[in-house]
């Protein structure tokens, strides 16, 4: 006899393993679907922030990186205050746990990338910091789960190492929760195998994305040393970390950043707007300046291996030899120099048949020389008047006589100019500026 | 004019195959050429008294099958054909049918009453054939109506009530039916055949009697007649009358109070003294009352009994007499009852009812049952020992764990020893009881641990020994091990208590699966299923070695099934069943090992071999794919990731076959899920297969044959594909978006009063949202503009869903996520849309208030995305 209407005998096994397996498979699939969609959401939003809307369909989203010169500063800062704080909190907390390909995809888009300084922002002295950029690779350093990983701009792993950063090695007795993690924006400096921390994105699980640069730098300077990350290396701390001296962008600060001796090879100057939040991708609220004085690496390439056009403006050689004058945007250089009140001045010299550069004195004083090759290429003729930038530091007095170690070609002189500067005029200019 | 078809109908029943086939072909041809004439001819045949009963009967059956089919699509087709038949032909047919109810041939009468109900099922909901009920009732009220006419008329009324739903009949029609039926039950006036037909008709008509039950006078009358009928002379009528009581117990629980005393008396007598079929119905009455009260407790909460809930505590009130009544039945076992799964007799029905009573009243049942247990469990007669054990096992779910744990502690040793009882029934029930103890009381993390370091060795040695006992006992032992392992899940460190035994347990289960006892089919699947639970509940890395060994053993066994000699379809089926079990174990192992980075390499080492085996399993069948192998492949794809690409070429044809399997919708559904697994594993490497997959999925969606439960997952699967292949999904957009919009439209038309439909609606909504999410995220970037036209309709749909109170949390989560995706992907294009609507604020607010962290997280993200759009 069989029971009526699906009454289940109590002794009959309740287990339907097949149904259970189906259900568990569905649960697994649903979880994985949700995971991959969430991943897509995180990755995708960072991509958007990076590209800042290249697609014509979305014309007015954010700022285009290439557009540069005429940035509406007030507008940009207003945008910053409307940032998507929660998105980044979510992103970062999860990002610190990402591994493998996912991590590469994520970190490839997370660095805040400076634009080239081709225009001088207003209130530079009041609203900006400046520091000398250490030469090396920009990277994110993430410490979590007892290990530290540094990732280059393309997301690939540079080092995988133990460190004294919070949760950065397995041995350290951890002062925070196991889930705590740090994300630092660094430059790895090969010569001394040091990570120079130039920005702090997360510290002990606390996200600094939505903090101003002012606060981030303060936090960076006070917290990093505390953690022991700046200590010499050991088995559990393979690379040492260091901060860089950061200056207010007034004249003294600029001067210091530009000229002072640091324990690393400089690669240009970085300018950070004090009020700016950490923004992924290119932003006009961080700027980079490179010239041949403060950078050995004044040529950089973009992801396609091409030299960015803005950067080409600065690709002039230490000596005006073999240099293509068409690259020079003298106006920008001058404007920058003036704006940052660097000790740069111009002299006008006359080019001679043999390439020597002379004053208008009789006999002329020789300050330098260009190669015949350069004269030919640039279509210069003997007797042309050329403007050169001279930096304070390259000027010296030898036996009471002025010598200029480094002349930077700027442009042909104004047509109205009839003569080159005289020696005394050069002396005078230098005296005015030099202390 | 009707055609003469008697000879064809008789030939169609000829013992000669050739004649039969020819006749069937003739009938089919006739049906296809001229359906109205065909139907008319059949009805004439059925109604003609001078025709042979055999041809009349077959005519009736063919007529019935021309109006109804099990398959919903076919049924709808037949309905439409009937509807389009000329009205005059239809009325001739109906007239013949009604006339046949008075036939002297009982076969013809019976068939006719069934055909009448089928016609009614088509016409009554369309407000046609409204005179039917009147005509039938006429048969009942005519003073000189012969008994056979009354009997078949009552049958027709019963069938009609079974076929149509309550809203299709007017209340006066219902009243008339009930009156006719109740009169038909009158003992003094009618023959037993008429009365039986009347009781059965009443059973079907009870669903229509809501209004009548609300009226005290009518209710009293109905109850009185039913109660009187439960003591009729004829046992068949008594049984049918108690079946009516069972139906009343579940449909009209809230009106039963005044009758309970009487009903207890009637049912108790039936349980104690009546024939088994009647007694079983009487027990069923109490089981149904338990069902109702359990359901009320679940809905209203147990403490709410006094005020608002309709709980009448019938079980609690009847407890002192009800429990002894059920305990008595436990002693009425049948010999050999354990040889058959799901055997149903007095003892089993009584134990089942006792289990329900325990779930209804909890602790109160314990003191009423324990004296019976204690008095009988040591008696010499096996029935007493078995009944005592069965009683104890039955009440392990319901009472508090605290109360039961004490009893179990003092009785466990006894039970373990009873596994050596000389009687197999006692051992069977004891093993089952141990299983129940582990199922309901054992939890390593619980407050009252049942298993301790002290008693575990004895338990394990008894189980490992008893698993070699008779197949029915061994099967129960497998169940006990299953729940024992389950109780150690989530146990953290204490799971190591079981670990030392796992090696022995696994080999015992493997040998059990190999047993060759005659009735080993169920035992074998129990053994493998228990193995699965051991794998699932084991803690990694503690058990990873054991699982790795098991993986190789199972692969070995699976490869042996390929060498089995297959001589018949039965052999093929056996092979398939065994492969199903083995693929099931592999699936569980795959899922377990892929959960941790430490154990994943174990899978990767064997992935190639495993995949080859699965493909060979597929190759064992020509037209269908093996569901379990498909399920396992999904888990394998997840574990291997992009590496799975190398298997795709070989695997693809089976995947396609699975997606085409409309009939076995579970297979289709699993194949759809596997597509998702593959998309996530392969990412854009799935692209070459997408045309094939997409066209199959679109076909599935459009097919009315495919079980509807597969359709929501197909939408979700679109999302998986879009996410994997990104902008390459563009070419499918013209097909997919209209499908999504059609489904969204459908959602607003689903019957909200139907729980099943409500749940289906939620699945559908979630599927639609997940599809949009995947497409939006996949199109992010240059192709985003493609989705701009969808934004506004999608937003309206989200709003409609948000406003719908029946949505569940999963739908809410999918809704809030797709809202963010819309803002994220389309950016400033959606600014105006978001500015113009406010519902998203409410939705976000609701999500933030939820205690589901995932939901909150998603809502936070969405809020960020919308804010970004609004300030852009």
Please give a structural write-up.
The complex is a heterodimer of chains A (435) and B (872). In chain A, a hairpin with a 2-residue loop joins β7 (194-203) and β8. In chain A, 28% of the residues lie in helices and 25% in strands. Chain A is an alpha+beta fold and 435 residues long. The radius of gyration of chain A is 29 Å and the shape is elongated. In chain A, the strands form four sheets. In chain A, strands 3, 4, 5, 6, 7, 8 and 9 form a seven-stranded mixed beta sheet that branches. A five-stranded mixed beta sheet of chain A has the order 1-12-11-2-10. Chain A has helices at residues 17-51, 73-81, 85-95, 100-107, 124-127, 213-226, 251-259, 309-312, 330-339, 372-377, 423-433, and strands spanning 112-116, 128-134, 137-144, 147-152, 157-161, 182-189, 194-203, 206-207, 240-243, 247-248, 266-273, 281-289, 344-351, 356-358, 366-369, 385-391, 395-398, 401-404, 407-412. The longest helix of chain A has 35 residues, at 17-51. The longest helix of chain B is centred in the first third of the chain and has 25 residues, at 276-300. Chain B has 872 residues and is an all-alpha fold. Chain B contains 41 helices and no strands. Chains A and B meet through α1 and α3 of A and α16, α18, α22, α24 and α26 of B. Chain A: Belongs to the snurportin family. Chain A: One of its GO terms (molecular function) is RNA binding. Chain A: Functions as an U snRNP-specific nuclear import adapter. Involved in the trimethylguanosine (m3G)-cap-dependent nuclear import of U snRNPs. Binds specifically to the terminal m3G-cap U snRNAs.
């Amino acid at each position: 006899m069989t029971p009526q209407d699906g009454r289940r005998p109590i002794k009959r096994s309740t287990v339907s393993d097949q149904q259970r397996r189906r259900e568990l498979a569905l649960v697994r699939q649903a979880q994985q679907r949700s995971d991959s969609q969430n991943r897509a959401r995180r990755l995708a939003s960072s991509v958007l922030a990076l590209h800042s809307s290249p697609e014509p369909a979305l014309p007015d989203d954010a700022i285009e990186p290439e557009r540069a010169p005429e940035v509406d500063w007030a507008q940009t800062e207003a945008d910053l205050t409307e940032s998507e704080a929660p998105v980044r909190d979510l992103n970062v907390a999860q990002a610190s746990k990402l591994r493998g390909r996912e991590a590469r995809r994520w970190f490839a888009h997370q660095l805040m990338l400076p634009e080239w300084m081709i225009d001088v922002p207003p209130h530079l002295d009041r609203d900006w910091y400046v520091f000398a950029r250490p030469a090396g690779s920009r990277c994110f350093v993430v410490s979590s789960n007892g290990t530290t990983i540094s990732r280059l701009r393309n997301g690939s792993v540079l080092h995988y190492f133990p460190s004294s950063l919070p949760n950065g090695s397995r041995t350290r007795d951890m002062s925070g929760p196991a889930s705590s993690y740090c994300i630092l924006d660094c430059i790895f400096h090969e010569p001394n195998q040091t990570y120079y921390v130039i920005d702090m994105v997360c510290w002990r699980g606390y996200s600094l994305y939505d903090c101003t640069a002012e606060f981030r730098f303060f936090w960076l300077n006070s917290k990093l040393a505390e953690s022991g990350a700046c200590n010499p290396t050991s088995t559990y701390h393979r690379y040492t970390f260091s901060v860089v001296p950061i200056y207010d962008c007034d004249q003294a600060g600029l001067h210091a950043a530009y000229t002072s001796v640091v324990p690393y090879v400089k690669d240009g100057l970085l300018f950070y707007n004090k009020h700016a939040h950490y923004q992924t991708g290119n932003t006009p609220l961080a700027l980079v300046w490179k010239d041949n004085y403060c950078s050995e690496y004044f040529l950089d390439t973009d992801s396609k291996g091409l030299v960015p056009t803005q950067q080409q403006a600065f690709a002039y050689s230490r000596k005006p030899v073999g240099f293509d004058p068409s690259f020079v945007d003298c106006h920008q250089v001058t404007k920058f120099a003036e704006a940052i009140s660097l000790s740069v001045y111009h002299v006008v010299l006359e080019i001679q048949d043999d390439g020597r550069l002379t004053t208008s004195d009789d006999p002329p004083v020789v300050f330098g020389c260009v190669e015949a090759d350069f004269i030919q290429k640039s279509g210069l003729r003997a007797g042309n008047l050329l403007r050169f930038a001279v930096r304070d530091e390259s000027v010296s007095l030898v036996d009471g006589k002025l010598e200029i170690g480094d002349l930077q070609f700027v442009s042909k002189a104004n047509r109205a100019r009839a003569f080159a500067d005289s020696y005394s005029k050069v002396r005078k200019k230098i005296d005015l500026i030099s202390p | 004019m009707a055609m003469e078809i008697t000879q064809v109908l008789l030939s169609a029943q000829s013992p000669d195959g050739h004649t039969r086939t020819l006749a069937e072909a003739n009938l089919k041809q006739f049906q296809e050429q001229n359906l109205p004439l065909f139907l008319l001819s059949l009805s004439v045949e059925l109604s003609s008294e001078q025709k042979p009963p055999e041809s009349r009967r077959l005519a009736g059956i063919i007529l019935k099958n021309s109006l109804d089919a099990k398959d919903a699509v076919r049924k709808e087709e037949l309905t439409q054909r009937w509807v389009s038949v000329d009205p005059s032909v239809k009325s001739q047919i109906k007239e013949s049918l009604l006339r046949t109810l008075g036939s002297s041939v009982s076969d013809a009468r019976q068939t006719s009453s069934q055909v009448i109900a089928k016609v009614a099922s088509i016409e009554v909901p369309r407000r046609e054939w409204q005179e039917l009920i009147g005509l039938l009732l006429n048969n009942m009220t005519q003073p000189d109506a012969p008994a056979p006419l009354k009997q078949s008329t009552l049958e027709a009324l019963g069938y009609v009530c079974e076929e149509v739903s309550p809203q299709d009949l007017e209340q006066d029609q219902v009243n008339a039916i009930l009156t006719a039926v109740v009169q038909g039950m009158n003992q003094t006036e009618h023959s037993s055949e008429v009365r039986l037909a009347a009781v059965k008709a009443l059973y079907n008509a009870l669903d229509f009697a809501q209004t009548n039950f609300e009226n005290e006078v009518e209710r009293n009358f109905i109850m009185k007649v039913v109660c009187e009928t439960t003591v009729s002379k004829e046992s068949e009528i008594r049984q049918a009358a108690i079946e009516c009581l069972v139906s009343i117990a579940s449909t009209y629980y809230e009106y039963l109070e005044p009758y309970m005393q009487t009903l207890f008396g009637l049912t108790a007598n039936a349980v104690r003294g009546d024939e088994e079929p009647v007694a079983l119905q009487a027990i069923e009455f109490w089981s149904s009352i338990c069902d109702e009260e359990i359901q009320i407790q679940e809905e209203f909460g147990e403490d709410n009994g006094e005020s608002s809930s309709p709980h009448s505590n019938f079980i609690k009130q009847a407890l002192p007499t009800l429990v002894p009544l059920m305990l008595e039945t436990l002693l009425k076992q049948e010999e050999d009852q354990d040889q058959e799964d799901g055997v149903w007799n007095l003892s089993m029905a009584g134990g089942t009812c006792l289990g329900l009573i325990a779930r209804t009243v909890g602790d109160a049942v314990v003191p009423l049952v324990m004296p019976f247990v204690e008095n009988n469990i040591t008696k010499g007669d096996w029935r007493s020992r078995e009944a005592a054990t069965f009683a104890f096992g039955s009440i392990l779910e319901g009472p508090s764990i605290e109360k039961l744990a004490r009893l179990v502690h003092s009785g466990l040793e006894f039970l373990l020893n009873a596994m050596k009882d000389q009687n197999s029934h006692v051992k069977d029930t004891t093993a089952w009881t141990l299983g129940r103890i582990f199922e309901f009381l054992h939890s390593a993390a619980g407050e009252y641990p049942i298993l301790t370091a002290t008693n575990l060795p004895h338990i394990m040695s008894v189980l490992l020994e008893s698993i070699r006992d008779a197949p029915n006992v061994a099967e129960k032992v497998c169940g006990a091990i299953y729940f024992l392992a389950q109780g150690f899940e989530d146990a953290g460190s204490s799971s190591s208590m079981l670990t030392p035994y796992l090696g022995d347990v696994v080999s015992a289960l493997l040998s059990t699966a190999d047993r060759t006892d005659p009735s080993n089919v169920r035992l074998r699947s129990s053994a493998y299923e228990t193995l699965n639970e051991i794998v699932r509940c084991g803690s990694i890395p503690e058990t990873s070695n054991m699982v790795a060994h098991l993986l190789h053993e199972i692969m070995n066994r699976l490869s042996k099934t390929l060498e089995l000699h297959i001589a018949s379809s039965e052999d093929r089926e056996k092979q398939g069943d065994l492969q199903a079990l083995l693929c099931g174990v592999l699936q569980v192992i795959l899922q377990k090992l892929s959960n941790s980075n430490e154990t994943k390499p174990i899978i990767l080492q064997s992935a190639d071999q495993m995949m080859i085996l699965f493909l060979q399993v597929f190759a064992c069948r020509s037209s269908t794919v093996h569901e379990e192998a498909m399920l396992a492949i999904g888990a394998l794809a997840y574990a291997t990731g992009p590496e799975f690409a190398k298997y795709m070429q070989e695997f693809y044809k089976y995947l396609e076959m699975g997606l085409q399997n409309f009939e076995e919708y579970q297979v289709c559904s699993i194949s759809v899920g596997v597509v998702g697994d593959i998309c996530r594993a392969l990412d854009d490497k799935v692209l070459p297969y997408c045309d094939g997959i997409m066209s199959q999925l679109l076909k599935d969606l459009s097919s009315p044959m495919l079980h509807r439960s597969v359709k929501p997952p197909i939408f979700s699967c679109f999302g998986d594909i879009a996410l994997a292949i990104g902008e390459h999904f563009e070419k499918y957009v013209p097909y997919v978006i209209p499908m999504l919009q059609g489904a969204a439209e459908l959602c607003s038309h689903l019957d909200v009063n139907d729980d099943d439909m409500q749940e289906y609606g939620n699945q559908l909504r979630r599927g639609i949202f997940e599809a949009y999410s995947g497409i939006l995220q996949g199109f992010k970037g240059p192709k985003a503009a493609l989705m701009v036209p969808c934004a506004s309709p999608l937003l309206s749909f989200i709003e409609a869903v948000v406003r719908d109170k029946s949505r569940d949390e999963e739908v809410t989560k999918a809704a809030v996520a797709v809202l963010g995706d819309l803002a994220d992907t389309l950016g400033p294009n959606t600014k105006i849309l978001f500015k113009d609507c406010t519902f998203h604020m409410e939705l976000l607010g609701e999500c933030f208030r939820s205690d589901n962290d995932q939901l909150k997280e998603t809502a936070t993200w969405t809020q960020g995305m919308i804010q970004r759009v609004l300030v852009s």
